[in-house]
Design goal:
InterPro entries: MTH1187/YkoF-like, Thiamine_BP, UPF0045_domain. This is Thiamine-binding protein domain-containing protein. One of its GO terms (cellular component) is cytosol. Belongs to the UPF0045 family. It is built from four helices and four strands, in the order βαββααβα. It has about 100 residues and is of the alpha+beta class. The chain has a single domain, classed as Alpha-Beta Plaits (2-Layer Sandwich), CATH 3.30.70. Strands 2-3-1-4 form a four-stranded antiparallel β-sheet, with helices on one face. The chain is globular, with a radius of gyration of 15 Å. The two termini are about 25 Å apart.
Length: about 100
């Protein structure tokens, strides 16, 4: 499994607050989770998504569209992907690996 760290930034909104966009994005991710496509974790600064590369790109495209559907005219999406193929890689596995060194 690959892990993506994404941040979606709606540009040109009336308010500096973006929490309602973040909430709507989480709803899209929850639906994909219920379909068994991905798992995700909201963090204070971004969202982590875990899944196969095709499922990650499907999820990223779906959440990138959320602000546009709400009338935003410009969206910047930052994406980082960790795709390790020599062994199983999960969000929890990465955390456990670090904890073993503490």
């Amino acid at each position: 499994m690959a892990i993506a760290d994404i941040t979606i930034i709606p540009i040109g909104t009336e308010s500096p607050s973006v929490s309602h966009y973040v909430a709507d994005i989480q709803k899209v991710l929850e639906a994909l989770t219920e379909e068994g496509k991905i798992t995700y974790q909201l963090t204070p600064m971004s969202t982590l998504i875990e899944g196969t590369i095709p499922d990650l790109f499907t999820a990223i495209q779906a959440v990138h569209e959320v602000p546009f559907k709400e009338g935003v005219k410009r969206v910047a999406t930052n994406i980082r992907i960790d795709d390790r193929r020599d062994k199983a890689n999960t969000m929890n596995g990465k955390l456990e690996s670090v904890k073993r060194h503490l």
